[in-house]
Specification:
The complex is a heterodimer of chains A (115) and B (116). With 115 residues, chain A is mainly beta. Chain A contains no helices and eleven strands. In chain A, the strands form two sheets. In chain A, strands 2, 4, 5, 6, 9, 10 and 11 form a seven-stranded mixed β-sheet that branches. Chain A has a four-stranded antiparallel β-sheet with strand order 1-3-8-7, with no helix packed on it. Chain A is globular, with a radius of gyration of 13 Å. The chains are: A mainly beta (115), B mainly beta (116).
Chain lengths: 115, 116
Amino acid sequence: GPKVLQIPSHQIIDMGQMVTLNCDPVSNHLYFYWYKQILGQQMEFLVNFYNGKVMEKSKLFKDQFSVERPDGSYFTLKIQPTALEDSAVYFCASSLNRGPNERLFFGHGTKLSVL
Amino acid sequence: AQKVTQTQTSISVMEKTTVTMDCVYETQDSSYFLFWYKQTASGEIVFLIRQDSYKKENATVGHYSLNFQKPKSSIGLIITATQIEDSAVYFCAMREGNNYAQGLTFGLGTRVSVFP
């Protein structure tokens, strides 16, 4: 079936550095999402991106976070600067539509370790 | 605010039997969508089945079916004729009808282990 690819699978960085997580969504999908899962906790919504803009974001989507998808390439999540509490697995997802036929396809996740 | 609770941390079953997983949800909205996802050992998260709140009939896809009890705010997942490859973590999720601002709200997940 359709696949969402996330690169890298694991990223280790020092606190205060910038990190960019990359996502290659399903090719014809229009809506893109980032979710965050801290070890042992529920997966939580961060942001939804459509038509080049952030549509909705949660309170977890701090000012240090930004997303973009320049020219239909990777959908990226950038954190600058990183903090210890940003350590988590970040899942990218995409969907063709929203509402009654909504169905999200998720990537395998990128494990971010902030030291 | 929406909330999803999965009380079962793990379940072990023998192959070819039926497994049932619980999920209860909280919402103020009269319209909402309920989903079940599966996360395999490789980390892949796969959509399994959904139930729209306005539909009375329980959804069924392949060997997955739902037990939707709206008055109890409950949406159980039933897997019949389990196979070894059904071993995974199963997540229940919900989204309120017109509330996209919170995305999907997930439960903590139930780990299912299927033994031969």
